[in-house]
Amino acid sequence: MRDHGGDPDRARQIYGEGDWLDLSTGINPVPYPVPTLPLHAWSDLPTSTDMAGLLYAARQAYQSKAAIVALAGAQAAIQLVPRLMATGHARVLGPTYNEHLAALVAHGWTVEQVSDPEDLAGADLATIVNPNNPDGRCYPPESLNALADQVGLLVVDESFADPEPAFSLAPSLGPENGNIVVLRSFGKFFGLAGIRLGFALAGREMAERIAQLAGPWAVSGPAIALGRMALADMDWQDRTRERLVADAARMDRAAHTAGWRQVGGTTLFRTYAAPDASRAQEHLAHAHIWTRIFPYSRHWIRLGHPGTEQGWDRLEAALTRECE
């Protein structure tokens, strides 16, 4: 099923209008402060100089020597991955973000979801989300580099890696790398999902193939200008990582009061096991708090963070009532 979070319209249709607190995504609720952008970012087509500045900022932020392609979000990269080589047998480590499997199937790949990383070996194309969504499993770069020797193409989706850069494969990639593609999201960590910006990091030849498939002007002028500023702002990134650690700990304490068991997650979102996830989601929905549950588990429920103290108060009060 291609089901996602970030669907508050569905919550309104079922539970009515109101002041909804949408916790169904893993997007940072305290976004990077958007400055006034130069007029040319809106009025002119992006130039090669503009793009070069963005890619330099991304290369510095991700500490990588790989070739980088800017795209309209990590989702755009996921849609291009099935076209990078002739169709064959793909394996996806799951359960995980379902667009990887869906995009491969839509392009004619034979796809198998496996639960053990060792079972990815031998695939023509193997996909790992690291850290994984929704359970937060992480795999060290050395194990991923070893896996790359056992598959045709290794795709590593690092959409939630910004808070935990030690697990990123990006610093070990160079321009001569042949069979690894790393995907990065801008919108999740920087809290600006609407700007639609992401990156693919790969060897030079693979990056050129991705860029050709993406076509000209794959990223808007405002996304280039804002991305360049935010990626270079290391102080904001460090402060945000510290805040997210504190927020994750606060979320865990609140979930504990509801009797939920922690499954995992990242500092951008937390996943818990509840006795009945559907009932727990419904309970919170009656308080106009929207969360994420999964078709493959009757227990798992995932929550992003509130962005304000008022939002935290609403959530903590609702979770306290959940345990009553």
Automatic annotation (TrEMBL):
Keywords: Cobalamin biosynthesis, Lyase, Pyridoxal phosphate
Pathway info: Cofactor biosynthesis; adenosylcobalamin biosynthesis
Every Aminotransferase class I/classII large domain range: 60-305
Keyword Nucleotide-binding: no
Highest taxon, organism lineage: Bacteria
EC number assigned by the record: 4.1.1.81
Annotated GO biological process: cobalamin biosynthetic process
Pfam family, one: Aminotran_1_2
SUPFAM superfamilies: PLP-dependent transferases
Cofactors named for this entry: pyridoxal 5'-phosphate
InterPro entries for this protein: Aminotransferase_I/II_large (IPR004839), CobD (IPR005860), NHTrfase_class1_PyrdxlP-BS (IPR004838), PyrdxlP-dep_Trfase (IPR015424), PyrdxlP-dep_Trfase_major (IPR015421), PyrdxlP-dep_Trfase_small (IPR015422)
Molecular function terms from GO: pyridoxal phosphate binding; threonine-phosphate decarboxylase activity
PROSITE patterns found in the cross-reference section: AA_TRANSFER_CLASS_1 (PS00105)
EC class (word): lyase
Catalytic activity: O-phospho-L-threonine + H(+) = (R)-1-aminopropan-2-yl phosphate + CO2
Function: Decarboxylates L-threonine-O-3-phosphate to yield (R)-1-amino-2-propanol O-2-phosphate, the precursor for the linkage between the nucleotide loop and the corrin ring in cobalamin.
Protein name per the record: threonine-phosphate decarboxylase
